Amino acid sequence: MSLRLVDGKGRVTASTQFAPPPLPTYSNCADILQPPVRVANGAVYFADSSGAVRRLAADGSVSQVTTFQLTNKQQALSFAVRPDGKQLIAIVLSTPPLHDPPPQALGDPVFGPGSWSLDLETGTAGGTAAVVLHKNFGTSFPSPTVITGWDQYGPTATLNSAICTQNVLPSTKYTGTLIHLAMDGTHLDQIGGADCQAWDELVDGTVLCGSGDWQSFSVRRKNGDVLWSRSGGYLQNVTLSSDGNGVASADGTVYIRNSSQAASFARTAQPAVQILGWADPGHVVTIGTDGRLGLSAPANNGLMIVDLGLTITSTCQSCLPYGVSLIGTI
Predict the structure, then answer these.
(1) Rounded to whole angstroms, what are the CA distances from 137 to 143, 180, 200, 209?
(2) How many helices (H) and strands (E) does the chain have?
(3) β-bridge partners, 256
(4) Pick from 163, 180, 176: which is nearest to 77 by CA?
């Protein structure tokens, strides 16, 4: 897989190749996995199929950071990097062995004898990661804790997380209750208040909370204070701008704090596009049905697209851009 840093004009400023972590077989549903790519301290940290985490700097140099313990293809890795790049935390979820022979019909068992388990690992940049907590879930399909990021208050994770789905979700990164997690695995405060269904979060703790019907949201401080809110249509894969003043839905709708009218690609003659995330507070990154990447300024209600001159030819989800940051599209 190719990992590229791209500036606002579509120029590739740094790149590398890596084999991403495995895609476990869960059941008759699509896996929900955390991205194997994280942004911290002006660089990109990426995990490969062996659990090794490396750092791609803006100048193109690649360095080894640490290694988490991935030993087979039936393990899912979620990890995060402290904003200064000095510490890392990860959860490795392991399934029971796959059934032998493999299932031939919908009702056949996916797994053979064995248990689900979870390992929490921590490490420092340049050091060796260690397991600090191990849990055995038995044979029942779990809703585990999953690492989602690291804000200025500490690591974040979702409790009771969905790990596979048969439906489109408003967020595939936050599928449970969002909390701060201590380095020993202790559950700390719920981010956004007790009624927050988190869909996205910023490094400063600002959180995007959604409604149960997926048609409204509120942007809050981490303690639950509401900064602004909107209601509208059905929201999908929703992302929050880096200044907290914009919310974008993958279907092509953008909500701005100081505007009562949502901007939408539906009002233009542009080809069908999806919004991947925010490049900066004033621009969203888009991908067309032809795989071409673009930038659009939500302040202009027409949402016209500036072509970045890059095309993603693969249709697999793991091959799409993993996110955006101030150092460029990832």
Answers:
(1) 10, 22, 28, 29
(2) 0, 30
(3) 246
(4) 163
What is each CA distance from 323 to 29, 93, 182, in whole angstroms?
24, 23, 25
Tokens 């959860």 sit on residue: 91
The structure's pTM equals 0.90
Query: Between the CA of residue 77 and those of 34, 48, 132, 134, 205, what are the distances in Å?
Result: 7, 10, 15, 14, 23
Cβ-contact 295, 283 below 8 angstroms:
yes
Please provide the DSSP assignment of 194-237 as one string. TT-EEEEE-TTS-EEEE-TTSSEEEEE-TTS-EEEEEE-S---S
Which tokens belong to 167?
């439906």
| d(C-alpha 240, C-alpha 198), whole Å | 11
Tell me how far apart the alpha carbons of residues 210 and 196 are, in angstroms, rounded to a whole number: 7
pLDDT tens digits along 112-159: 999 999 999 999 999 999 999 999 999 999 999 999 999 999 999 999
Its sign, for the CA torsion 229, 232, 238, 240, is negative
Sheet containing 328-329, strands listed edge to edge, beginning at the edge strand earlier in sequence: 12-17, 2-6, 328-329, 324-325
Give how far the C-alpha of residue 272 lies from the chain's centroid of Cα atoms, to the nearest Å.
Answer: 23
Strands 283-288 and 273-280: antiparallel
